[in-house]
Design goal:
Length: about 250
């Protein structure tokens, strides 16, 4: 039992408050910068209107919101099903207590390959697995299990070769598989101009913690999708900086 400003607090209460604070902290980390954050603000606005309708005696509005909020848990599950699935997968894979390091030499090989393909306008899609396993994606590809090198990556994506379609998956500093099929993201009207490779990169980065790299064969530009966000028009220096920040 602890005393604080005249209040008696037990260690169980401190533990309870601490665990709740940790849960809220990781929820904020999961939704920060995503569309889920905007939905949460919308739900908070609904709660505020519900409270004010009760204070000011707006009975019809209060009745409607009461019926809506009575099924709030179902609404949350429907709205956040993808984010809940992604968060549970990341927690189960140990995202919050361990970090997988990549060798700097491997990052350099990836950046050199991306830069070379961009200069030659060779379309490419690379996925770098972090903590969330991509077993279902790998099963649909062609097993490689080779060391990451600029020459191998360029050869895989060379036009009209058997494996140039689909994505290459890199895990633990090795090219695990090629010609993998990725889920496509739902894009907005503003994003309608992006191609299939970019939609696939966004899709895998939304559902997992993987990093997806894209070379556009039309424009010869490099892009990176991380956490459902697409960063375009990268040069080799910025790309290397991004990969070092998230992988080491």
């Amino acid at each position: 039992m602890f005393g604080f400003l005249g209040f008696q607090i037990s260690w169980k209460e401190l533990l309870d408050v601490g665990l709740v604070a940790i849960v809220y902290f990781y929820i904020i980390l999961l939704v920060r910068g995503t569309r889920a954050a905007a939905v949460i603000w919308g739900l908070l606005l609904v709660l505020l209107v519900y409270y004010l309708s009760d204070v000011f005696g707006l009975y019809t509005l209060n009745w409607l919101l009461t019926n809506f909020l009575s099924s709030i848990f179902l609404v949350i599950i429907v709205l956040f099903q993808r984010d809940i699935r992604k968060g549970l997968a990341q927690m189960g894979a140990g995202r919050f207590w361990r970090k997988q390091d990549f060798e700097l030499a491997v990052i350099d090989e990836i950046c050199d390959a991306m830069d070379s393909m961009a200069r030659q306008k060779i379309g490419a899609l690379l996925v770098i697995q972090k903590n969330v396993p991509l077993g279902d994606i790998l099963e649909k590809g062609v097993e490689i299990n080779g060391q990451v090198s600029k020459q191998l990556l360029v050869n895989i994506f060379w036009p009209d070769t058997p494996l140039h379609d689909g994505a290459v998956v890199i895990r633990s500093n090795k090219i695990v598989a090629a010609s993998c099929i990725l889920p496509l993201a739902q894009v907005t009207s503003r994003q309608s101009a992006i191609g299939t490779r970019h939609r696939a990169a966004l899709g895998i980065s939304e559902e997992t913690d993987a990093i997806a790299l894209v070379v556009s064969e039309e424009r010869g530009t490099m892009s990176a999708a991380i956490g459902g966000k697409l960063t375009t028009s990268l040069d080799i220096i910025r790309l290397r900086r991004v990969l070092k920040n998230v992988l080491t």
